[in-house]
Write a structure and sequence with these properties.
This protein has ten helices and two strands. By secondary structure, the chain is mainly α. The radius of gyration is 35 Å and the shape is elongated. The protein starts with 49 loop residues before the first strand and ends in an 8-residue tail after the last helix.
Amino acid sequence: MFCPNCGTQLNDNAKFCSKCGAKTDSAGAAEAPRPSPPPPTPPPISPEPHQQYGRTESMPESAPMLGDSTGMLDPMECIRFGWNIVKSNLGIFILGAIIVFAINAAISFIPFVGQIASIFLMPLNAGLLIMAFKAMNGSTPEISDVFSGYKRFADCLLVQLVAGIFVGLGFILCIAPGVYLAICYMLALPLVIDGGMGFWDAMTTSMAELKRQWMSFFVLALLLFLVVLAGALALGVGILVAIPVCACATANAYKQTFPVKNNLP
């Protein structure tokens, strides 16, 4: 019980305040002052947003991280890397290119059946890329890697076939859409090879990222064309070096854009 006059704490049966002498009883006693409520807890600081495909946006922890730490593609670095990797593994890459060209040439000369059968040779295009990824990861490429694309036959075939159809339709409707789609699908096959994606997921993922960096990949495509042209002008023999350089440059472009999974077939 408290004195109603001065607030001094009293015994429950006290009639008068021992300090100020005021008359009091339990009915008139003042209640103990309530403590002030604690200050409100500040709202939790939201976590830093993750960066996905180079854009700043919130992303759950379970979502895959896509996009690299550098932000944008360096086309010239891709070409330099491609040349250095091929130069360090020149013999195996040239032999791999010879096998790919020889098989494609042999099938194309078969009347009627050749054009249809050439569709089923599309996984061979993944072979040099697989060799490029192995060399990029510090492993030694092997000739058997040329045929490793057949371990993911359906996705390696469909990602090139469906993307080729879309690009072809784009060129038929107007040249610009065809060029745009061709650039956007540049990393679809590497996403199948290294990321282990299905063909459709690889196509949509490649487009989602490359449309953001379209101009950088367009510059890379022009540089790759010049590499192939230079190889063709070198008595045609240079093409056996140019194509592996392009494969290794593409692998490096993938590394600059997506996290390498090392999920090769």
